[in-house]
């Protein structure tokens, strides 16, 4: 587990009601150098007061905008599969000015399974990005890595009742035969509290028992050696967001370094896991070309990923970028292009850099990748349709048939999809007692 110094520890009373959950919490608490005396135990009727007085919402600011960044507070909770999610969400939103989403769900004990409607008619961004509709799995909310562009600090909420979770997950998987792979977490880095928490291991081993279904873990961690002894049976895929030397040390300060992530991948591949990389986010620091070449050589000579993805630093305006990052670290041509393109990128998620500058990054990365492994599939991650038009011939794939790092049909070593991922995706009602859809729903 990471060396953490949380400013506060919280536990819902349900965590103490079952010995297995209590023991999981206690192992993490002790690993932080604390005891049960340091844990504030609360009941349902105290949650609103905690949200208001302990700053759970105000803690969520991009970490590069803060004068100081500390480890997050830890809050232990249990999933509720009681069918009361809709009214609980509405009551919380009414009390706290529309407070909704994954953090709200985690505090309430809901949001275990999330219908992500990417590319479908209900997706408000379907014309601005290429991604795939699917069920996504959640178990934590928040992160310890302190990445300067991220707003998931301040509070990390983790569930503990993994046995209940797996029982309900089994229903979701059985009802959706078109979905072959399941991403666990897109707003937490779930290996960080392991193995003390003792929840990720059972999920990995559960997938080892499910025929033709695979778990995907997306991470920036170095903390995966404990996974080597698990009975995964080749049904877990680990995807590292891989960033260059400067980015991993200066912009993602508590994550694994470039070298640590690659070594963690090598050791898990040695233990039979499928490994892959997303070069994400590609931050154009001043010597980004040299650092990219060094990183790609290291990754592709020490490991054999089954696919790769590319994604530029994005999802913010140029002014927000300047608040989060030290622009003196960045390639001046990219800063200048972002400043000159404010109006051109105003209506796209892929800002602050204009398309031609993002393409410059991808061209270089592709050339370096092909130098070391000309056969590995490479795709663009959550990029625009226009960028896909620009690169589809170079990539040898289209927005419909590409295999990515975490999509719902991204099984190990598949080269192209043989189905239309937008056409086969069909959400089936499942009686889990946790009526997702969280922030991505209907």
Strand content: 5-15%
CATH classification class:
Alpha Beta
Main pleated-sheet profile: 6 strands, parallel
Distance between the termini: 37 Å
Taking pLDDT < 50 over at least 5 consecutive residues as the criterion, the unreliable ranges are 438-442
Categorize the overall geometry.
Answer: globular
Rg from alpha-carbon coordinates? 21 Å
Instruction: Give the neighbour order of strands across the main sheet.
Output: 8-9-10-11-12-13
- The total count of helices amounts to 15
How many domain modules? 1
Mean of all residue-level pLDDT scores: 96
How many DSSP-defined strands?
A: 13
- What percent of residues adopt helix (DSSP H or I)? 25-40%
Based on helices, strands and strand pairing, what is the structural class?
A: alpha/beta
What does this structure look like?
This protein has 15 helices and 13 strands. It is an alpha/beta fold and 442 residues long. The protein has a single domain, classed as pyruvate-formate lyase- activating enzyme. It has a six-stranded parallel beta sheet. A five-stranded mixed beta sheet has the order 2-1-3-7-6. It has a two-stranded antiparallel sheet with strand order 4-5. The longest helix is centred in the last third of the chain and has 18 residues, at 355-372. It is globular. 47% of the residues are buried. The model is unreliable at 438-442 (pLDDT under 50).
């Amino acid at each position: 587990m990471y060396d953490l110094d949380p400013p506060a520890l919280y536990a819902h009373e349900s965590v103490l009601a079952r010995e297995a959950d209590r023991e999981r919490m206690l192992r993490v608490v002790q690993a932080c150098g604390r005891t049960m005396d340091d844990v504030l135990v609360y009941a349902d009727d105290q949650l609103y007061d905690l949200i208001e007085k302990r700053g759970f919402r105000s803690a969520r600011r991009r970490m590069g905008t803060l004068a100081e960044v500390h480890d997050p507070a830890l809050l232990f909770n249990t999933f509720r599969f009681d069918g009361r999610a809709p009214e609980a969400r509405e009551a919380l939103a009414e009390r706290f000015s529309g407070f909704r989403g994954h953090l709200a769900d985690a505090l309430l004990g809901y949001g275990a399974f999330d219908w992500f409607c990417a590319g479908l008619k209900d997706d408000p961004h379907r014309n601005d990005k290429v991604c795939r509709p699917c069920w996504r799995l959640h178990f934590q909310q928040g992160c310890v890595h302190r990445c300067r562009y991220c707003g998931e600090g301040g509070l990390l909420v983790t569930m503990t009742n993994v046995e209940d979770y797996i029982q309900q997950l089994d229903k979701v998987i059985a009802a959706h035969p078109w979905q072959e792979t399941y991403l666990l977490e897109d707003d937490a880095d779930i290996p960080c509290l392991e193995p003390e928490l003792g929840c990720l291991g059972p999920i990995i081993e559960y997938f080892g028992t499910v025929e033709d279904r695979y778990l995907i873990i997306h991470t920036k961690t170095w903390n995966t050696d404990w996974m080597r002894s698990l009975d995964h049976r080749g049904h877990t895929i680990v995807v590292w967001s891989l960033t260059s030397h400067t980015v991993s040390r200066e912009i993602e300060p508590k994550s694994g370094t470039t070298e640590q992530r690659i070594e963690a991948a090598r050791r898990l591949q040695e233990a039979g896991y499928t490994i892959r990389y997303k070069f994400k986010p590609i931050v154009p620091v001043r010597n980004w070309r040299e650092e990219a070449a060094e990183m790609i050589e290291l990754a592709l000579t020490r490991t054999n990923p089954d696919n790769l993805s590319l994604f530029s630093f994005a999802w913010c305006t140029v002014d927000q970028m300047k608040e989060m990052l030290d622009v003196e670290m960045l390639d001046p041509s990219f800063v200048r292009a972002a400043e000159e393109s404010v109006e051109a990128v105003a209506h796209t998620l892929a800002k602050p850099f204009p398309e031609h500058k993002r393409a410059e990054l991808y061209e270089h990365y592709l050339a370096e990748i092909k130098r070391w492994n000309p056969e590995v599939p490479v795709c663009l991650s959550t990029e625009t349709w226009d960028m896909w038009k620009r690169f589809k011939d170079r990539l040898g794939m289209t927005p419909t048939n590409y295999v990515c790092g975490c999509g719902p049909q991204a099984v190990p070593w598949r080269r192209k999809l043989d189905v239309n991922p937008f056409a086969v995706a069909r959400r089936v009602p499942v009686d889990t007692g946790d009526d997702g859809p969280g922030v991505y729903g209907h």
